[in-house]
Amino acid sequence: MGLEMIDAGWLSILPPVVAITLALLTKEVYSSLFLGIFTGMCVYCFSTGGSLLQAVTYVFDMMAGKIGDNGYMIIFLVLLGSLVTIVTRSGGTGAYGQWAIRRIKTRRSAKLTTALLGLLIFLDDGFNCLTVGTVMRPITDKHKISREKLSYLLDATAAPICIIAPISSWAVAVASEVEEAGGLGAFVQTIPFNLYALLTIAMVFLLSATGFDFGPMKRAETNPQIPEESTEGTLEGGAQPRGTVLDLVLPLVTLIVTAILGMAYVGGFFQGASFSEAIGENPVAGLTLGTFAGLLVALIMYLPRRLMTMKEFMTGIIDGIKTMIPALTILILAWALGGVCREMIGTGNFVSGIVSSGHISMRLIPAIVFAVAAFLSFSMGTAWGTFGILLPIVSMICAGPNGAEVLIPSLGATLAGSVYGDHCSPISDTTILASTGAQCDHLRHVETQLPYATLVAGVCFLGYIVAGFTRSAAITIIASLAILGLVFAGIALLQKRGVKPSGKESPLPGSR
Q1: Burial of residue 2, with CB atoms counted within 10 A of its CB: 0-12 exposed, 13-18 middle, 19 or more buried
Q2: Residue 269 — φ and ψ, nearest 5°?
């Protein structure tokens, strides 16, 4: 925008405060972010003798500038949404369901397969929930696994794997918010410190392998309510899938392989740069090339076999773009809010000055950030909106010499808290999609999942205290896993001694 940054003092914290407060009060992130941006522009204009009209103009100037700066990411996300929609409509997911039914023979293998498939589809959380739910629901029904357990398995592998997979819509969104800290490289460094994602995935496989359950989930699994009309390996409406397993697998494999090659090509690997340097040069451009290649492979596979017409293919692209509009809106507003704080009113300098001169130990920042992110994400129902607001602030807090050592743990804690809140919030789109994919009553899903998610969150809070003092990912992970193991052992001991839910307790909401 060509405007010089000013020192707005305490007024510099108004934009994030306004955004967070309104988000908590209204449970609506779009208008909250917009008004936060507008507040920042008002602070800038009134401090420099400008007018209200100039403030409004600067809001859209900032948004337009951020759209231009992040053009490749926007293209990647809309292409990814298109690919997800087209692959789903090809019938490949239904074909995989029929293939799996013939091979999965036990309850344990059904749960483990659901969890494994949830980890393999790491491109997008919504695609994950709906695809895995559609594929595995007939199989879990066959083995009398409750819809509540299925929805938990979907929800507990969707966002957690997306937030630690370097090739996903989530990774690119996070990288765009931490450009000053290193972009995608910084995101990769946060993976070992994303305790909630790592521990939740570990818990999913532990529960699936052992058959251990507690709380409302144990009651749901004891008396699973499986609809009689459940069908095996069919699409919605009872139609048999026309696609094959390859129609699901090949476009996704093409995306991953071509994305890695695309990163290397764009970064100059084939011109002599090292591989690590090349993939970090412009990773979003490589992801865009990979997604486009996946679409081309889908086109070549589907049209000659008449899985869909050219018109249906293009309709799928447009519908896929529509699915990404909410996420893109949040991102553009979050970019603009971060731009106002960093580039115009000096929020970072003010906040880092307060922290460095105050009585808050930097060693406690990761744990504090985790708790704040968890509360905000649960209240708003959006991980993207939460880390869009908090990541720039956390980067500013840790920008000084005293905070550099806890920057990566704190960024990881921000992402972990955002995912936890999103995971168990009843108004989260991922939570809703998980219950939709499992065809489970939404409130039943929330109630049965909440104790599991909160148990992991409590362990994570302790783990981030360890991270703040040690700055070691290995020590933090080992300590967190040990605490989680002790908690499970304690619950198992209590259940063995008879301290467990009674069969006479009132049924879950919506029980039939």
Answers
A1: exposed
A2: -60, -40
Distance CA 287, CA 167 (A): 7
Question: Average pLDDT for consecutive 10-residue bins of the chain (512 residues)?
Answer: 79 83 77 90 90 92 90 85 84 74 84 88 72 80 89 91 80 75 79 94 92 88 69 44 81 85 86 74 81 94 92 93 83 82 76 60 87 80 78 77 79 92 79 80 85 94 93 92 91 75 41 36
Query: Residue type at 18?
Result: V
Q: Which two tokens stand for residue 114?
A: 């659901």
Q: Which of 286, 336, 260, 278 is nearest to 62 (CA)?
A: 336
Q: How far apart are CA 393 and CA 349, in angstroms?
A: 10
The helix (run of H) or strand (run of E) holding residue 391 is helix 383-397
Euclidean distance between CA atoms 407 and 426, whole angstroms: 31
SS3 call for 285 = helix
What is the 3-state secondary structure of 421-432? HHHHCCCCHHHH
The pTM of the full predicted model, rounded to 2 decimals, is 0.70
